[in-house]
Amino acid sequence: MEKLIEGIHQFQSGVFGQQRALFQRLSEGQAPEAMFITCSDSRVVPSLMTQSGPGDLFMLRNAGNLVPPYGPLHGAESAAIEYAVMVLGVKDIIVCGHTHCGAMKAVLAPDSLARLPATRHWLTYAEATRQLMESHYQALPDAKRLETCVEENVLVQIENLRTHPAVLAGLSRGTLKLHAWVYDIASGDVLVFDAAAGQFVPIAELS
Ligand SMILES: [Zn+2]
Question: How far is the CA of 40 from the centre of ligand 1 (A)?
Fold first, then answer.
């Protein structure tokens, strides 16, 4: 905790003073560039990797960057998505998975969750990912399997996003776009799903 408290002192005596006008403006409201859905993993720092600042990204984070499909049990995810699209009017939603994801490791090894009932329940929202991995990618070596699982899961969650009425409406109006990304922790690379090519490509190569 000491490190965090020291950080607050530094923030208040340094950064905040230098950007006082920005924070004053933000106190009047937010108009974020995009909604960013990613994993809770501490190694994923969206504002750092996109070099964005306060007010730029409307964030939704959970273990495995999962998006429960829309349904009668409106959870935190549904509310955040609805608010982002209907109230804030975000034009883009990014689902960003990442390499070495613990949640995806657990999807590939469900037995490891015997003592974690809440996690096991939560990861049922990645059940389509698990089934896809079981039916198509059993033969891959472990590291490649995890990499593929991360990518497939991002695409599964994009499909889940489409079940949310606000998202569907935005897509049909042409005012909303969905983006599937994977962040590589070791290299800093960001891969983006290129629908035309049917695969993830480095973001710089996206046509
Ligand atoms: Zn993760």
Answer: 6
Angstrom distances, CA of residue 145 to CA of 39, 91, 99, 141, 154: 19, 33, 11, 6, 14
Q: 149 CA distance to ligand 1 centroid (A)?
A: 11
Q: How far is the CA of 102 from the centre of ligand 1 (A)?
A: 5
Return d(Cα 192, Cα 181) in angstroms, integer.
5
- Residue 195: C-alpha distances to residues 75, 98, 201 (Å): 29, 19, 10
d(CA 40, CA 111) in angstroms, rounded, equals 22
- The phi and psi torsions of 39 (rounded to 5 degrees) equal -75, 155
Ligand 1 centroid distance, CA of 65 (Å): 7
- Domains of the chain, by residue range, sit at 32-205
Distance 186 CA to ligand 1 centre (A): 14
Largest CA distance in the chain: 56
Predicted confidence (pLDDT) per residue in 102-147, tens digit = 999 999 999 999 999 999 999 999 999 999 999 999 999 999 999 9
User: For residue range 55-64, what is the model confidence (pLDDT) as tens digits?
Assistant: 999 999 999 9
Superfamily in which the 32-205 domain is placed by CATH: Carbonic anhydrase (3.40.1050.10)
